[in-house]
Amino acid sequence: MADELITISRDGTEIGKFLESDLMMLIEQKKVLPTDHYWKEGMAEWGLVSQFIALRKEAARQVKAAADAEAARLKKEEAATRLKKEAEEIERARKAEAEIADAVKARVERQTFTCNCCRWRFLKPKNPNDNFTGGVVLCFLGAALMFIPVLGPIIGSVVIIWGSLTVLVSGLYPPHCPSCRSTNFSRQEGSDKRLFPD
Ligand SMILES: [Zn+2]
Fold this sequence. Notes:
- By secondary structure, this protein is α+β, with helices and mostly antiparallel strands.
- It has a domain at 5-64.
- It has 4 helices and 7 strands.
- The strands form 2 sheets. Strands 2-1-3-4 form a 4-stranded antiparallel sheet. A 3-stranded antiparallel sheet has the order 6-5-7.
- Helix 3 (132-145) runs antiparallel to helix 4.
- The radius of gyration is 51 Å and the shape is rod-shaped.
- It starts with a strand and ends in an 11-residue tail after the last strand.
- Bound molecules: zinc ion.
- The site of zinc ion has 8 residues, from loops.
């Protein structure tokens, strides 16, 4: 706002020219009265100083309203930015969590077998071949039991039969799913290739 020179008159007599910026102070000090008249360049006729006061107050009110609106807008914008940032952080945390879960799942899948028939997941297929050594040991144990008097030959022969059957059966079945005995199972590494073809 340009600081214009304002002419003040009282009862038809000019009492002075003041800068617009000084005028409000002079009004407060009662050196210029609301009943005085004022005129500045561009005005068609003289106006009452009370009108000047009202105009100044209205202008000040408008400036303040504009400033308040701007402050409110900034505050709203700030809140929106903060909310957006928080949402992004939550999303980042969620993604990291999902990545960890995926990594754990992938590792579990790499370490386990999955049956292609019953979808059972197991660490190790059941392998009857593992019983071979046990069967042989049982046979020797049975032979040793034979030397015990009276009951020895009976218990010994039962143990030898048990051991022999274990040895025989160990060669009958290939490794299989512990749940459904299917031999169709695989490790989950993108390949459906059977580990032990039958
Ligand atoms: Zn199975």
